[in-house]
Amino acid sequence: MTATNPTETHAGGRRRLMGEGLGRYIAALGQPKGLIGSGLLVLLVLAAVFAPILFPGGVDQQSRDSFLLPSLLHPFGTDELGRDIFVRCVYALQVSISLVIVAVPIAAVLGTLMGLSGAISGLLGEAFQRVFDIILGFPSLVLGICIVIVIGPGWLALATTIVVFSLPQFGRLARGALLSEQGREYVLAARVLGVSRPKIMIRHILPNALDPIFVQVSLSMIGGIFIEAALSIVGLGIQPPTPSLGTLLNVGIRYVYAQPMYTAGPIIMLLLLALAFNLIADALNAQVLKTRGE
Amino acid sequence: MAANLLEVRNLGTTFRFGQAEVQALHEVSFEARTGRVLGIVGESGSGKSLTARAIMRMLPETASVSNGEVLFESGNLLDLPEARMRSIRGSKIAMVFQDPQAALNPVKTVGWQIEEALVVHGMNKSRARARAIELLGQVGIPEPDKRIDDFPHQFSGGMRQRVVIAIAIANSAKLIIADEPTTALDVTIQAQVLRLLVDLKSRLDIGVILITHDMGVVAEICDDIVVMYGGRVVERGAVAGVFAAPQHPYTRNLLRSMPRIEGVRTARLPTIPGSTPDLSRLPSGCAFHPRCQFAEDICLREVPVLLPMAGSPEREAACHVARQNAGLPPDPDPTPSSEPLAGVRTSGSAPAILEIEDLSVTFPGGGGWLRREKPIVAVDGVSLSLRPGETLGLVGESGCGKTSLSRTIVGLNRPSSGYIRVAGEDVTDFGAEAAAHVRRTVQYVFQDPYASLNPRLSIRQILSEALEQRGLPGRQREAAARALMDMVGLDAAYLDRYPKAFSGGQRQRIGIARALAVEPRVLICDEPVSALDVSIQAQVINILADLRDRLGLGILFIAHDLSVVRHLSDRVAVMYLGRIVEIGPASDVYEHPLHPYTAVLLSSTPKPVPDPSAMQRKLVLGGDMPSPRNPPSGCRFRTRCPIGPLADPSRRICIEKDPLLVGPGEHKSACHFPDEAAGLAVQSKA
Amino acid sequence: MFGFLARRLPSVVFMLLATSVIAFLLPRLAGGDPAQTIAGADATAEQVAAIRVELGLDQPVYAQYGRWLGDLLVGDLGTSLITSRPVGQLIMARLGSTLELAIAATVLMVVLGIGLGILAGSIRKGAGRAGLDGAVSVLLATPPHVTGLILILVLGITFNLLPISGEVSVLRDPLVGISLLIMPALALALPQAAMIARLIQARMYQVRQEEFVDLAIAKGVPPRRIVLSHILRNSMGTAVVATGIRVGELLAGAVVIEAIFARNGLGLMAVDAVSSRDYQVVQIVVLGAVVIAVLVHLLSEILLAALDPRIRLQ
């Protein structure tokens, strides 16, 4: 049974309809998994944003000693120039987080629209599916190389790679939801009533299509963070001297014997980010399944 | 009386959900005997399938037997080690499942699957193959030596169920448990499979336990009956006795609320109020008491025990009232109202509100760039008309095109040729204006009450979406929504609930209310009760009849169940493979069918009247409906027709000439030999 | 079977053509004038124009594409504008290294993926299930380069079990060659194997719910045989398709893995070629990677069709 307020007016009902979806996602973050995941994410984002305040010395501040072992002063030790690896890692988070926070939502909105375009024109929907097929045929790093060639290495090429790479994931989810929803009897009933296409889309199709897309946003963030790392490790991503988790690894691997923390530090940061998004995705997914099961 | 083959005593089963335990079966007891068919009848949630699985010790992982015993060959099956039990499964007790599409492994040949049943019980491979061919022949599969290496998807549904039955009898099991073996099949195929089961029972001298929701099937092939409700046996005995004088109010009401294909039609079906209970939330005392007209205080407090009835030791019932009164008291309302069903509301001269002329609907065949499949002609030159206040029943088996036809009328499919006129206006092109006209005039009630309401919208939102389409301003919608709820017999206080809070019957009423919101003049009902429990069906049927009479609605009522159609319809059209083969006033079509297919449908439909010889007299069709991709030439029914070229090769006309839909007066049929078709029906009734 | 191929073939051809167009356009989209590159910075306009004619760059783009594709089909992969060596030669020089890595990784992926998947699909309760699920989830979420770096840190540095960089052909010195191959191959294989395992596990759960498994139990079939003949047999299609899809991603991982483990394979060559703007080499590597991925995928679908009579007998 749903607990509903019997005195609720019709207008209230409509407001709730719009708000209901987002409310559920926020509720998911209240679950233990979601709470840990979002807590961890907030912590990492705050650290990245406030890095200049937390570490006023800046990212390139050098101490006298290179390759110091981890200590309270230098949690991850120091690098070949005596810079604090932990500080560099925290600054590096800025790149990873800014990339996915810009690129993934763009991909989600574009991809979802492309996936749903089949509702307006069957031909358009088909055409976008073929585009997705081509993108999916390109393994992620091959895609990255192609985009780097065209745009030139850097933040923009990485962001573009993440957008293009994530597009088909959202597009296919949206199209799948569209196709399955379009055949549902309640959608047919709305059509027989003469409800307009945009209304059917907003009221009946979109709410159900959004569930898997919100989960995928979280998962694509992980994908994006790892794409940055991969391309920067081989030197095709962020260019030095800007620190990113990938560029740190690019140098760190050369000094893996002298300073293992140079490699381990960025990896710890990568895994923490991945963990945070994974927990959030899990919590969202559980919430979605719960609604479906009702 | 034959000796007991299997005895179930005080069987109890529990489900575990995390920490919580729910008792699903309570003190279930019955016997199965050799040479007899025991029917276990119940609606959804009655525990009938769970009982079958408990006997086979195939309960789901979350369920376990809490008490009781299952005696078979002087041992308790529940005490056997798993390995011993495995040697009994399939060799001494076998099982037939509901869905023949799902019951066979899709990547193994049917031969392999039959042989497996033999090999795991010790037969060697080459003998098993010979036996498998023999078995396929025994269950009536033509050319068994050729078909044995085919895969399940190469067989039709009915043929697959025959294969499953072949597996069941492979090791000469003494007992076959069939769990709704014909529910997924069309009525003509159901008749084939039931006849096969009865034949095998007498030929092989085995016992059969048939689990079903259909009282008609019980009446026609069972010897004994166990009626289950809320996880308990509420009544059991010989079929004839129980049907003649049921001793539990549930049994009696269930039988009464079934629409009949024969006999007098009454204005309203007697209904059972409420809905079937959920096993996890059973009412106290007698689980049926909230729906029972006799319920007394004791029924709320104490669970009635299944006890023999005074005077007939073979009959047992679990009812306080029946016990106290030495038999169930007579019904307070035994005679249905005498108000005639047809009459005032149909005025034969009123102009038709819906006219369909020579309508065809074609679906593209699919396939890629290199290979195109032939298109499917789902509806082929159909003409129909419907007057206000009239119900036109449209019957036919799955794949006959009835749903394609009805969806085309409301614009969900596009016609490939022909005309549709709604209230005199041609709407075939379904342009903006025509569409608006159709939507104001014609509405649709869907089959699946669980799929036709958006789970995310409250009932208020669902209804006001529809009211908005009628152009009702926001502030008037509240009152209108309440009026709609009232119209379909639901409390307006439920408006803020979501669909999940409602039972199937209630959801279907909401679906009807939504359709009525635009004040249509025609309602198309596509199998509106086929997904509902029998005790709920009557509620929905009555509401439809009431609304039709009150609002003067024209109803196009589509169903595969001929009894339901008969109850509600003034006129009936029978569809086969995209065409109408017979149409006319309901009483004429049902009593004097002029097409052999109608005669066969009528004869195949199980009737809830016990009759030991019914099965033998049935007209049972061979084969399956051909694919609408490649319909036969001439008469489309000729490949299965009992009076066509199959029976009499000289009747070339059936192959060469397409019969026209003609006949005396309003009653028309598309058969070259209508008189013989009429004779066929008489013969099967005798 | 013919019908199945007939339906699949158009989309495969479309995919290959689309990829070839993209690969063809890559150097052109990158900017820069190839004729100028060849001629050198201080060449005269006439010299550059002559080279342009020689390369066919004065012709319309579609004609250039046609010529390029025609050359490819007869085995002429073009010439590097930077090193002036035939691309085919450059690739052959590096192919062995990548081939060893790819074969080792694919074998590991298939064995680990299917093995883990069957294990995870068979154990349905207790600590074993939780442990397996956890392990698969972690592997799944960790991409090859991170896996590789963790392997280096753990197996290479902390326990000092395996050498962390360099390569020796397995054919020349099997022992050293394999010891150098284990970590990169594992790094490539593990994430994909986890993906395959997850799909197989899910499929096995799903098949277990099917009514034909109930029928097999009701026939008296022993559990082992039910798992083998009914559940696994019906899950194999998923395993095949899952593997086919992952091969492309696995190959592409070589780009980073070769850099991390200092292996002189095609991946590293591609990265270097991008840095040195040697686009003629990159375009062939890109095309090759996608073509292989598409063909392996098609192969897996053919295998699936062979396994499933519903497709095979259409």
Automatic annotation (TrEMBL), chain A:
Q: Where in the cell is it found?
A: Cell membrane
Reading the lineage from the top rank, the first entry is Bacteria
TM stretches of this protein: 35-55, 90-114, 134-165, 213-238, 258-280
The alphabetical list of record keywords is: Cell membrane, Membrane, Peptide transport, Protein transport, Transmembrane, Transmembrane helix, Transport
Per the record, membrane topology reads: Multi-pass membrane protein
- Major site of localization recorded for this protein: membrane
Show where the ABC transmembrane type-1 domain sits: 93-281
Which PANTHER family does the record match to this protein? D,D-DIPEPTIDE TRANSPORT SYSTEM PERMEASE PROTEIN DDPC-RELATED, OLIGOPEPTIDE TRANSPORT SYSTEM PERMEASE PROTEIN APPC
The record's family statement is:
Belongs to the binding-protein-dependent transport system permease family.
Q: What is this protein called?
A: Nickel ABC transporter permease subunit NikC
Q: Which organism is it from?
A: Devosia nitrariae
Which classification does the entry list for the species?
Bacteria, Pseudomonadati, Pseudomonadota, Alphaproteobacteria, Hyphomicrobiales
Automatic annotation (TrEMBL), chain B:
**Domain annotation ABC transporter: ranges:** 6-255, 354-602
Q: Where is this region: Disordered?
A: 324-345
Tell me a Gene Ontology molecular-function term this record carries: ATP binding
Q: How does it sit in the membrane?
A: Peripheral membrane protein
Keywords from UniProt, A to Z, are: ATP-binding, Cell membrane, Membrane, Nucleotide-binding, Transport
InterPro entries recorded:
AAA+_ATPase (IPR003593), ABC_Ni/Peptide_Import (IPR050388), ABC_transporter-like_ATP-bd (IPR003439), ABC_transporter-like_CS (IPR017871), Oligopep_ABC_C (IPR013563), P-loop_NTPase (IPR027417)
Q: Which PROSITE patterns match?
A: ABC_TRANSPORTER_1 (PS00211), ABC_TRANSPORTER_2 (PS50893)
Q: Which domain of life is it from?
A: Bacteria
Which parts form a coiled-coil structure per UniProt?
Answer: none
Extract the Pfam families matched here: ABC_tran (PF00005), oligo_HPY (PF08352)
Instruction: State where the protein is found.
Output: Cell inner membrane
Q: Which family does it belong to?
A: Belongs to the ABC transporter superfamily.
Name used for this protein in its record: Oligopeptide ABC transporter ATP-binding protein OppF
What organism does the UniProt record list as the source? Devosia nitrariae
Which taxonomic lineage is given here?
Bacteria, Pseudomonadati, Pseudomonadota, Alphaproteobacteria, Hyphomicrobiales
Give the encoding gene's name.
oppD_2
UniProtKB/TrEMBL annotation, chain C:
Give the protein's recorded name: Peptide ABC transporter
SUPFAM superfamilies named in the record: MetI-like
Q: Please report the stretch or stretches of sequence annotated as the ABC transmembrane type-1 domain.
A: 95-303
Name the Gene3D superfamilies for this protein. Answer: MetI-like
Cell compartment(s), UniProt = Cell membrane
- Give the family per the record: Belongs to the binding-protein-dependent transport system permease family.
What main location does UniProt list? Answer: membrane
- Pfam families from the xrefs? BPD_transp_1, BPD_transp_1_N
InterPro entries, from UniProt? Answer: BPD_transp_1_N, MetI-like, MetI-like_sf
What membrane topology does the annotation report for this chain?
Multi-pass membrane protein
Q: Where are the transmembrane segments?
A: 12-30, 101-123, 135-162, 174-200, 239-261, 281-307
Alphabetized UniProt keyword annotations = Cell membrane, Membrane, Transmembrane, Transmembrane helix, Transport
